[in-house]
Amino acid sequence: MSDDGARSGGNPKVGIIASLGTWIIRALAATWRVRFVNPDVCKPRRDRDEPIIYVLWHGQILPLLWTHRKRDISVIISRHRDGEIIARIAKSLGFRLVRGSTSRDAARALLNASREIEAGHDLAVTVDGPRGPAGVVAPGALVIAQRTGVVLIPTGASASRAWRLRSWDRFLVPKPFARVTVAYGQPIRVAPGNPRDATQHVERVRDAIETAIASADAG
Question: Are 117 and 148 in contact (CB under 8 A)?
Answer without folding.
Answer: yes
